[in-house]
Amino acid sequence: MSGAERLGITADVLVIGFGKGGKDLAGTMGREGRRVVMVEQSDQMYGGTCVNIGCVPTKALVHHADVRRPGDDPQSWYHDAIGAVTDLTTMTRGRNFEMLDTLDTVTVVTGRASFLDATTVEVAAGDDRLTVSAATIVINTGSVPVVPDIRGLRDSAYLATSTDLLHTEELPRHLAVIGGGYLGLEFAAMYRQFGSEVSVLEAFPAFMGREDDDVADVVVGILRDQGITLIPDAKVTEVRDGSVDTTVCYEAGGRPRTLRADKILVATGRAPAIEGLGLDRAGIRTTERGAIEVDEHLRTSRPHIYAIGDVNGGPQFTYISQDDHRIVADLLLGDGTRSTADRRAVPHTMFITPPLSTVGLTETAARERGHNVRTAGKLVARATATHRPRIMGDTRGLIKLVIDADTDLVLGAALISIDSQEVINLVALAMRHDVPARELGNSIYTHPSTTEVLNELLGTVARVGAQVPAGGRPGIARSPSTYWARPKPNDQSSGPFSV
């Protein structure tokens, strides 16, 4: 197709962006006999962020970092790990492409899409142009890293996003991480395990500020014991490049400070990827934060156009994008009853080692909302039914559940333990279906497993809930230094964390 030639095709459904939600929706509609066009701007992003530059490669790197032995050369191990992960993403990307390409009703087009009007987009690939018209259009373009406006940062030769690091075969000697959220701490823990020196600069006064103090204390303790330098209340003011590294200038504790690093990871959030889409030509409204405005059924200001995944400003998780596809598919093929209002107890995991998994309300938030709260929790090392973590040789962490004393329903949980990313799904399912805490405590679980700690914890809920701390409200008396003190690596005691 020459630059002077413009071809046009018509589809029932046009999906812009090959992410999880868009891919699943294209497949669903194609298998129902609808004519679908999937547009993806890069052949390196078939399958979306998670498969190529997000969940899959980063969690694979976490695994490679964790299994490195003390005698293994850090640089060689890291180089081989990057190679193995590249092979994995290449294979997964190919399978994602085949999933759609093998459907006769689906056409995959590689190029940049931009709206011409509310029913037509132009796809550009070099000098080639293709117009696609469709009655239903779904925008699934994801998000991009945010680089803060710090003097010298954007022009620094040592700046890296998480995507950049996944394609860097040289292990940083000293990695400076700007941002202490989930992404920043995951990468900090991973690169420390690979052998880098790591410093994390967090602008807020405390790390893990959205979690209860006892949970945050354990996470911070694990990271610091790992050798990571955590610097809270740090305002980065300037980055000054040198010939072999860069100097990060920041203020902390009211004093100017500096640190030197040969790589800076910016982990200050991601913004919806809407640049160049021409949303105004389609009459699609956006929010003040730059996301595409949607209703509870993910319809934009143009009812035949939907926005799913990160681009609509919702939680930036692959499984949320997958659920977005279910909502749109239900509108197009079902009875249209599914909506974002149906979502309850969505779990999250931060893949440090051991991972932190959470769902629902923290104890603090539950009390603020007026619940009559009781909690059940233990340090992993002090629980009896933690054979799985002991077998794996890692008894760091804690298990904590927040329960409504009046209804016996679980309000939330924070699990820091081997396999917490699996156990949290069971807790979330129980919350969504109003399974009482006593039922979780009395259920039969496999042995040895991390899940069976629920038998131990929830079997004592009534006793724990009867305690009355100084404030006069039922619950566990607050004293992190006493009850959440980090166990030593060889601490195999099994006493409860509270009295």
Task: Characterize the structure shown.
With 499 residues, the protein is α/β, with parallel strands linked by helices. Helices cover 30% and strands 24% of the residues. The chain has 16 helices and 22 strands. It has helices spanning 20-31, 49-52, 55-66, 74-101, 162-166, 182-194, 213-225, 279-282, 318-333, 363-368, 387-391, 420-432, 437-442, 453-458, 461-465, 480-483, and strands spanning 6-16, 36-40, 106-110, 112-115, 120-125, 128-139, 143-145, 159-160, 174-178, 197-201, 229-231, 234-241, 246-252, 255-261, 263-266, 270-272, 305-307, 348-350, 356-360, 373-379, 398-404, 410-416. The strands form 5 sheets. Strands 1, 2, 3, 4, 5, 6 and 17 form a 7-stranded mixed β-sheet that branches. Helix 1 runs parallel beside helix 9, helix 3 packs antiparallel against helix 4 and helix 3 (55-66) runs parallel beside helix 6. The longest helix is centred in the first third of the chain and has 28 residues, at 74-101. The chain is globular and about 65 Å long. The model is unreliable at 462-499 (pLDDT under 50).
Record field, number of beta strands: 22
Weakly predicted, low-confidence segments: 462-499
Task: Report strand %.
Answer: 15-25%
Helices, by number, come to 16
Q: What's the Cα radius of gyration?
A: 25 Å
Proportion of helical residues: 25-40%
Shape: globular
Task: Output the structural class.
Answer: alpha/beta
Mean pLDDT: 89
Largest sheet: 7 strands, mixed
Distance between the termini: 76 Å
